[in-house]
Design a protein that fits this description.
InterPro entries: Transl_B-barrel_sf (IPR009000). The chain is of the alpha+beta class. Helix content is 36%, strand content 33%. Strand 1 and strand 2 form a beta hairpin.
Length: 161
């Protein structure tokens, strides 16, 4: 749904710019005030922007969403009553719910788990991007995590070795 919205925005922008360029061309070729370099620049700029926007609308659906590596340095840990824990810190990059992550602690232990929930500014979110966030883990006990540990995407962890 988001891709369709972006496609429509680019198409609308392209149509607007092409319309402005065509109107400027018609007005310019009307001979009303003679040749003006500024109007020529306006016409060519609008037409180029219009073509660019329409091309973007055609190309965007075929581009895959890039993998954005994400990590979080643990600033605080809280125990949840039934099971699991909440980890608080600043997310660099992007972390998503149900995304596999590794937790590397100061002793070299690596824990592989998935993020069960994310809260950003007291609201549940499907992802956190470059913001302070709280991550919820059901399968990890608070005794397994320490302050200044690193939580990062599996792909990023595999890249770094």
């Amino acid at each position: 749904m988001k891709k369709i919205g972006n496609l429509l925005k680019w198409l609308l922008a392209g149509i607007v710019f092409l319309g402005l360029g065509a109107a400027a061309y018609v007005f310019e070729s009307d001979g009303g005030y003679g040749f003006s370099l500024n109007r020529y620049r306006l016409t060519s700029s609008c037409l180029i922007l219009g073509v660019f926007c329409v091309a973007a609308a055609v190309i965007l659906p075929f581009i895959k969403e890039p993998f954005v590596p994400g990590y979080l340095f643990v600033e605080d840990i809280f125990r949840m009553k039934p099971e699991g824990c909440v980890v608080v810190g600043y997310v660099k990059g992007r972390l998503r719910v149900n995304e596999p992550v590794t937790i590397r602690n100061r002793y070299g232990t690596v824990i592989r788990t998935t993020i069960d929930g994310i809260e950003v500014f007291k609201k549940k979110k499907p992802a956190a991007v470059d913001t302070p966030a709280a991550l919820y883990f059901r399968t990890v006990e608070p005794e397994m995590i320490y302050i200044d540990d690193i939580i990062q995407n599996i792909k990023r962890a595999e890249e770094e070795g």
